[in-house]
Design a protein that fits this description.
The protein folds into two domains: 85 residues, Rossmann fold (3-Layer(aba) Sandwich); 127 residues, NAD(P)-binding Rossmann-like Domain (Rossmann fold, 3-Layer(aba) Sandwich), CATH 3.40.50.720. Strand 5, helix 7 and strand 6 form a beta-alpha-beta unit. The strands form three sheets. Strands 1-11-8-7-5-6 form a six-stranded parallel beta sheet. It has a three-stranded parallel beta sheet with strand order 3-2-4, with helices on both faces. A two-stranded antiparallel sheet has the order 9-10. It has 285 residues and is α/β, with parallel strands linked by helices. It contains ten helices and eleven strands. It starts with a strand and ends with a helix. The structure holds NADP nicotinamide-adenine-dinucleotide phosphate.
């Protein structure tokens, strides 16, 4: 089985970006800028934000964190977004989700300038993905496609089953897989909690993408021999961090698989940097 090493691949992508940014800085006379908004004290969000900051620094992106108390008002948060929309040194704006209760995240996401929406969550960018137009792509699914590209595992003409239909992973991933291209052109099935015969659906897949949030949900008997398995899940259990797939038992069945940790997670961060550099280039050209 080929281990789809997202950690290593992400480091390669980030190094390529560092070199690219060095050249662009000379041309444009400034560094790319990412503004990260973190509201409240959610420990997981704090770790994610820190990891994104470190990755930005190493690549030469100026990342500025805007930390707000959990009791901040919707109005104050919206004012900050508007200020960042109008700040020429800010190429990308990332609103770390989830927001504390009482704040309307959809409203905030829709307020972000689509040209600075490096998370790809604004309805304009979601619509562009649907239409196959250039625009910012949601980081986790776009990072997954890059990982498949780097391992030369084209999905064209293959059957792909995506388990999970969230707006940040399942739906955009399904949409990317059904676009035109070698790492798209798939026949896509999306499964969720109301899917009857889910195991049968998954068993028919050449490519399985699990984005469920349930530890070791996808088991050996559900996967076709030789299938490629991409595990998006991050579940904190007594055994530590585990994915949505039963990695140990799938080793003898899958032809290639992502580990957790070290698979999709690092690719998500790398894609955020890719999107930020794209925004930076767009703003300067
Ligand atoms: P989510 O919004 O909770 O969505 C989970 C999806 O799984 C839903 O569509 C749900 O179906 C489906 N589901 C839940 N239980 C199911 C069951 N028993 N059978 C079939 N489908 C079921 O989660 P998410 O944000 O997409 O995240 C999924 C996982 O990926 C989580 O572990 C999350 O931590 C991880 N994640 C990782 C990264 C990364 O960078 N590696 C990024 C984002 C998320 P319904 O729609 O019918 O409820």
């Amino acid at each position: 089985m080929i281990l789809l090493n997202g950690k290593e691949t992400a480091l390669t992508v980030r190094e390529e970006l560092r070199v690219e940014i060095e050249g662009l800085k000379e041309k444009f006379g400034r560094s790319p800028g990412l503004a990260v908004i973190l509201v409240g004290e959610d420990p997981a969000s704090q770790v994610y934000v820190r990891n994104k900051e470190i990755a930005c620094e190493k690549a030469g992106i100026i990342s500025t964190a805007y930390r707000m108390d959990a009791d901040v008002s919707q109005k104050e948060l919206e004012e900050l977004i508007i200020r960042l929309n109008n700040d020429d040194a800010v190429d990308g704006i990332l609103l770390q989700l989830p927001l504390p209760k009482g704040l309307d995240s959809q409203r905030c996401l829709e307020l972000i300038d689509p040209g600075k929406d490096v998370d790809g969550f604004h309805p304009v960018n979601v619509g562009k993905l649907m239409l196959g137009l250039p625009g910012f792509r949601s980081c986790t699914p776009a990072g997954i496609i890059t990982l498949l590209e780097r391992y030369n595992l084209p999905t064209s003409g293959k059957k792909a089953v995506v388990v999970g239909r969230s707006n940040i992973v399942g739906k955009p991933l399904a949409m990317m897989l059904m676009q035109y291209g070698d790492f798209a052109n798939a026949t896509v099935t999306v499964c969720h909690s109301r899917t009857p015969n889910l195991a049968e659906e998954v068993k028919s897949a050449d490519f399985v993408f699990a984005a469920i949030g349930m530890p070791r949900f996808v088991t050996k008997d559900m996967v076709k021999e030789g299938a490629v398995v991409v595990d998006v899940g991050i579940n904190r259990t007594d055994d530590g961090l585990v994915g949505d797939c039963d990695f140990e038992n799938l080793e003898g069945v899958a032809s290639a698989m992502t580990p957790v940790p070290g698979g999709v997670g690092p690719m998500t961060i790398a894609q955020l940097l890719v999107n930020t550099v794209e925004a930076y280039r767009n703003h300067n050209e």
